[in-house]
TrEMBL record:
TM segment ranges: 91-112
Highest taxon, organism lineage: Bacteria
Keyword Transmembrane in record: yes
Keywords of this entry: Membrane, Transmembrane, Transmembrane helix
Protein name: Zinc-finger domain-containing protein
Length: 155
């Protein structure tokens, strides 16, 4: 039987007044218990009434969006000047081209084609007889050796 938490426990949970391990247990219990979920929602509604009311919601939203836009502009201007040469795509293209030229001059790609040819050659594929074919061959060999022994005994 699972333990249900009281209204006071959920108030402590909402106000973040619980220890870490107890808080995790309460949170895990919340996922599986509908009765405690109802109590938790009641606590949230009651705690919501204690928050200050926004007088002019339109003005508040507009000022908040303006602050966010200002922060985005500041972050964008800070990010432009700090990009180093090693992080640019031009550096990566130059590095890739230099490595390709170096590999071509050392013959790495030629050795790769030789390896590919040996892997793809038909000589590497050997036809393995099936189990039934091997069994038939062994049976015939046994019968031949048996007949050969009988001929030696009769002579």
């Amino acid at each position: 039987m699972t333990k249900h938490y009281s209204y006071e426990d959920w108030c402590q949970y909402v106000k973040n007044e619980m220890d870490g391990s107890v808080r995790e247990d309460v949170e895990t219990h919340l996922y599986s218990c509908d009765q405690c979920l109802d109590i938790y929602l009641q606590v949230l509604d009651n705690e919501d009434s204690g928050l200050p009311k926004i007088q002019n919601e339109t003005q508040f939203t507009a000022s908040l969006m303006a602050n966010i836009a200002d922060l985005n502009k500041k972050n964008a201007s800070l990010g432009e000047g700090k990009k180093s040469f090693y992080q640019s795509s031009t550096f990566h293209y130059i590095l890739a081209a230099a490595m390709t030229i170096m590999m071509m001059s050392t013959g790495v790609f030629q050795s790769l084609t030789k390896v590919a040819d040996t892997v793809q050659s038909p000589q590497t594929f050997q036809q393995v007889p099936s189990f039934s074919e091997g069994l038939i061959n062994k049976t015939f060999n046994w019968m031949d050796s048996f007949e050969h022994k009988n001929k030696e005994v009769q002579k």
